[in-house]
Amino acid sequence: MADMIKINVITDKKYTEPRVDIYTNGDTDLASQIVEAVEKVAKVKYPPIQVLDEGKLILISQRDIFRIRTEGRSLILDTNDKSYTVKGTIAGYEEELDSERFFRSSQSEIINLYKVAFFDFSITGTVGVEFENGTRSWVSRRNIKQLKSRLKGESDIQKNQREEV
Amino acid sequence: MNYRNRIIKLTLIGFVIGIIIGLIITISIVSARTGDGRLHICDPSFNPSNTGDILSFIRQIVFPGILGAVCFGASIIYDIESWGLLKATLVHFIISMAVYVIVGFYLGWLAIDRPLSNAIQIGGTALGFFIMWLAIGFGLKKDVEDMNKDLQDFKKGEKTGEEE
Fold this sequence. Notes:
The complex is a heterodimer.
Chain A: H1 28-42, E1 49-53, E2 56-60, E3 67-71, E4 74-78, E5 83-86, H2 90-96, E6 102-106, E7 109-112, E8 116-121, E9 127-131, E10 136-139, H3 144-164
Antiparallel strand pairs in A: 1-2, 3-4, 3-7, 4-5, 6-7, 8-9, 9-10
Chain B: H1 3-34, H2 53-74, H3 85-107, H4 115-156
Helix pairs in contact in B: 1-2, 2-3, 3-4
């Protein structure tokens, strides 16, 4: 039957966590659906993001994402090594991504706060963001208050947790 | 609230504030200038088309209202994310001053034969914008310093693996 998917289950004690490898002839739609099904079963809270890279479907962990930004009509996902064009909308990714890790810094960008090296302020009145890999972005003035609260709130929680230990 | 609704709201608020401030200034300056111990709500010299006092009065409150509407409505410029604070303040200043000069000459606040008074009014407005720019700028600078301090503690709490 043409639509059958062959499934091999390998039992080996060395696999402390289940692992799924998908072999496909390039049918990325089917591969994508299988990934979604597996994520659903595994109840992955913040699943990796699926991107197409030169026709191949790859999964990018949210931890590795520096930012997602609009560029013209396209949506670009930046990692340390590479940038990928992804489908969807900024608003859609804002819901999908880990809300503790990511912050909507402007209408056109979501940044990974754990990848931020520092913020700076220029004489023109722009609040800049420099990431750990040296790339730069900026934060909209409207979102500064919210960003401050986010950083302050989380840092207070971390401090309290350390003091308790 | 979208931009269109925000501009409408700001413009209406500005119009009302402009009327109130225009009224206060007109009454106080004209009454002081006349010096007869009475409150005057309309500049007697302002009667450009020889119309009655009521129309003059309406002009003297509507035009400051228009000025207020433009100044407040134009403050939507600060919401343009890609514009730095300096650019936004400069553009806001230019728009506000342009309307102020037009209204000012029409209402007699400014006059060709009163260069010192003109300089004080325009210079005073420019100074006001400069102070506003400085204040907002210092506020943002302080915010950035606070954020950098908190960022280090924030990053120490990065989850390891539980989200995947």
